Amino acid sequence: MQQRIFNPKLLSLLLALVLTNLLLPSLFLTAGDSTTGRHSVESNKVDDSRMDWWRDARFGMFIHWGLYSASGGEWKGKQIKGISSWTMKEAKTPLKEYINLRKKFTASKFNADEYVKLAQDAGMKYIILVSKHHEGFCLWKSKYTDYDIESSPCNGDLVKELAEACKRHGMRFGVYYSILDWHHPDYTPRFPWDRRTHKPDFDKYISYMKKQLRELLEIAPNIDILWFDGEWDKSWTRKHGQDLYAYLRSLKPSILINNRVDKGRQGMEGLTREGGYAGDFGTPEQQIPPAGLPGVDWETCMTMNNTWGYKRQDSSWKPTNVLMHQLIDCASKGGNYLLNIGPAADGTIPPPCPQQLRQVGRWLSKNGEAIYGTSASPFSKQLDWGRCTTGKLQDGLTPLYLHVIKWPASGKLAIPALSNVVRGAYLLADKNKTELEVKSQGKLSVINIGEKSVKEYASVVVCLI
Ligand code: FHN
Description:
Elements: H1 8-32, E1 38-39, E2 46-47, H2 52-57, E3 59-63, H3 67-71, E4 74-75, E5 78-79, H4 87-90, H5 95-98, H6 112-121, E6 126-132, H7 158-169, E7 172-178, H8 202-219, E8 223-229, H9 238-251, E9 256-257, E10 299-303, H10 320-332, E11 336-341, H11 353-367, E12 386-390, E13 399-404, E14 412-416, E15 424-427, E16 438-441, E17 444-448, E18 459-464
Parallel strand pairs: 3-6, 3-11, 6-7, 7-8, 8-9, 10-11
Antiparallel strand pairs: 1-2, 4-5, 12-13, 13-18, 14-17, 15-18, 16-17
Bound molecules: ligand FHN.
């Protein structure tokens, strides 16, 4: 029988070919699979370390600023219903009249460093500026449209200026960009009263969007977050969203993109990188999910009054303790809190916003350890006296931060017993970390916090387990 002798060179060549064809695609995939995030070959775990800074940040500033700020929630002397950023729709404004608001958009009182300083005074760790809202007006000098800041009396580039100020002060920066565009001739659908005869070409609009987004990343290389909105029209499909996510991920692998690039806003639980909605975090709006959104990153965006853009007659400002408690509530559920300001057309930030933001910042300057870098409460049910956040393991102990909002009259703070033994407890504001007495009572651990000593939005007890 003829002995078949394998030629070792041929064998190694065959082996190399087989391995190359097997391994190469997965190597490319791990190099940055833009639709599902980066997978490390070893663990096949989604590598989302780009989220780490965002998870630690917990608190950001949202800035809604555009031509709607110049109308101030009014049209032809009458207050519009609803939110001012929807003036075009609420007032059914003829496009030719609405675009004249540019003449009033001066940003004359805008100082980028002062905006960043205010965010820092508030204890905020990132800023999201609306660069283009549904109205289509661009707050930067865009090569792709003349409906931008250059067509207003403002002689600056607001996106670039704020991005550079953020860089100077070590503040993370992101931009909001509306997929929906009530001005662009190729966007569909249009308002029923929009009588333009140009036949819209949605693919051309998508190409415009991609060019603008690339342009934004070029003029402001420190953009760390792209915050999409206006994803609800049928013209924008999930395929469009997943394609745009992949495109942007390929432009900047470290960028964070919210779930409104796709249709994920409704299906928060679908927010996974393996085949779910595209997007790195969920975006509950004007509400804090009662039980948080376990398993996904999320951020509640919230107004300080009832409207996103400046609305002259909306003075229904939330009290500072409400803002404070919302921040604590989000953190206790493992989420971020994106608090909005709506400057007027000249850049003035409506009082009492700065004052209230600084009040929040003063609390955070003393208690920030209980917010930044924390994760959700370990307790399955809500605590009736306040909230809890979990700190990072240090020297073998995990700090639970007990945010006491309703100080128990008895001075005894009861927490559900945990499997881990309570190793110690002290008031975060107590520089001496005076040990508090802790006793087990059945299924509870009771910490003696004594008489309410300070008037605070929340007093934090550190409970080491
Ligand atoms: O229509 C917008 C609204 O003006 C505002 O920008 C909010 C903020 O998330 N998003 C949309 C409403 O969901």
